[in-house]
Amino acid sequence: MRIAMVGCYNGMQRAMSNEWQLTELRSDNSKQAETGSQNSFNLDNNTMDMFFPATGNNAIYTYWLNTYNNIRNTNIVLQKLGVTYDPATGANIFGTSDIPMTDSVRKQLAGEAMFIRAHHYFNLVRLYGGVFLIHTPISAAEAKTINRSSVNDIYKLILADLTTASTNLSGKTFSQISAGDIGKASRWAAKALLGKVYLTLGRKPEAITELTGVLTASSGYSLETTYPNVFSITNEMNREIIFTIRYKAGGLGLGSSFGNDFAAGSSGSTIINGSGQGWNTATFDLDTAYMTTISATPVYDPRRVFNIGNFGTGNSLRLYPRKYLNPVVITNDGESDWPIIRYADVILMLAEAQGNNATSIGYISAVRTRAGVTALSTSLTTVQFEQALSNERRLEFAFENQRFFDLVRFNTTLTTITAEQTIKNHFAREYASHYIRYPVPRLTLAELQAKVDANHLLLPIPQYELDTNTQLVIAQNPGY
Questions:
Q1: Are residues 355 and 463 located together in one domain of the fold?
Q2: How many domains does the chain divide into?
Q3: I want to staple 443 with a disulfide (CB 3.0 to 4.6 A). Which of 104, 309, 364, 447 is the partner?
Q4: By CB neighbour count within 10 A (0-12 exposed, 13-18 middle, 19+ buried), where does 17 fall?
Q5: How confident is the model over 301-353, as pLDDT tens digits?
């Protein structure tokens, strides 16, 4: 069962391999660099970037497939542990298991599987809306008899999984975690993710309860002393990393490809051994945000040089993500982990849930000063507070696949910032220099901005799912 759980953790890598296409690329952080290329990968990225992906977009289906593959892994583990989910009551039930183990070990393993399953469904429901609620292993024939569930029913499972996990997972403080348990889901990871789910649902009091619980001394987590320390490959699983998807270099088949994926294309060995693909290119919009965050004086936020690299000059200048860039001996075999929940995320979510008050401003300032940026004024208007919160999350979590989800959540939690207007403003700022070659004829700015609406905040259900089900008619999302 422990080996099976290793498989579930490993399965998270597959979904992560292209999550940036569905998140960062659809935000104001990232853009498609090869706008004139006619190969299918780049054409898919073009339309994803510009908010009108086709229902047959390969990235959309690849992510869907990899996510459901790992949900299946977690369902198998839970079945063998004798754990079932009751959709009627929204509760996980611990039955009997014929595998000899102590009750505490069984509940720990079940909690880990539930955390991973909840993580996957949380991403699916935010990206696609109501999806297929599969909570036990099923056959291909059975799958064709199950239609999409409502958004509410998906969240019911997520809340059940995380509530159960937070009760049963280890609550050891950070300093007490043994070498064999490093990287596993913990009570603090479950509570932090549960807090984000509640915040996404607009249930702020419950979010505050869960997030405050992670801030207690009993968790042992806190901010790292410097921003680069959080991501150093010699300081992995540090006191700020509450949960991360782990990678291991060394020719084991467990390394990260992101250093090569994101380094500037055709850069040879200048940036990384094996050159770069040029994917997930940083926008000039994000670059400008780092420059203006300190004051009116055009000085870069110190996080900029860590997160964004320059390749080329003048009109050929390309900005690329540096966060996952470390030396590699073998191409696509990096060491960098991908953080899912950090302590900085927890305190900034708490600020978002509490709203504009001195404590919330203090949380934002703590993240700023750790990064080497001046603290905020202790008194802000609602507009100033919400803009400061949005900016801080954007700069702090750049290229961690947080920005798109943040913008959509702000539609519920903030009053002066919306996802649609933010993306429309982004298009206006980037239009002259970027959205120029595809499709032909070129969309006007007004036509491009018109693509950004509530319907297109969701992705389409992969067309393959609709076409191959011969027993059910599966509804496509509105607008596709």
A1: yes
A2: 2
A3: 447
A4: middle
A5: 999 999 999 999 887 889 999 999 999 999 999 999 999 999 999 999 999 99
